[in-house]
């Protein structure tokens, strides 16, 4: 599906289903230098369990037009505009890594628009290591190698995959290579500069789930504690689930566990 948001074309994956805004809607937001395709497994799972799925390519990513937006706050504003363009009054929103910060900010800034919030691989603040920021600007192949090393478990780096015959690190490298030159540096810069995460968490009131991967090196579970505590205003407290045997790239390394956790949360609330 393609929409126009703020005058620019936006590609949205709907899991090959006709989008039906009258059904429960869930928005799936990808992370830095990615596109909608990282959500393919979970999007199809949710679409076949009664949800209308919107998995957009963020501005300047994948098949969406324009330049990448340079701040999390700007992306949150864009997300609200996306819902308007899709004719959606309210939706659940899930975001992975950078996408989780966008989802968090949007849920705090537009509380009447979001019914449930799911944060995957999320911490606040989300500082980015200086060598990775530098490589993203000056040496993208090295930056891609760093991201693969820190995002995937050792087993995945040796070739293990939930889809036999598929190289998860190879797919991720090609996905990042397909983005325009400025995308990775812009995305990582936005994550690194975002200072409003804990304040936003304090303003969230909708039911919230934190999904943490057991072997995440980029946003390890111990670093999630400040965010979890800041979500104290959520009714009954924010829930936290650990995804076993997966790293930061949990969408690819544990697709079934992630999809089942998201669906269980959405149908429970």
Automatic annotation (TrEMBL):
What domain of life does the UniProt record list for this protein's source? Bacteria
* A Pfam family reported for this protein in Swiss-Prot or TrEMBL: Abhydrolase_6
The chain positions of domain AB hydrolase-1 read 26-258
> Which UniProt key words apply to this protein?
Hydrolase
Give this protein's Gene Ontology molecular function annotations: hydrolase activity
List the PANTHER family.
Answer: HYDROLASE, PUTATIVE (AFU_ORTHOLOGUE AFUA_2G14860)-RELATED, MONOACYLGLYCEROL LIPASE
Listed name of the protein: Alpha/beta fold hydrolase
What is the organism of origin for this protein? Aromatoleum anaerobium
Q: What is the lineage of its organism?
A: Bacteria, Pseudomonadati, Pseudomonadota, Betaproteobacteria, Rhodocyclales
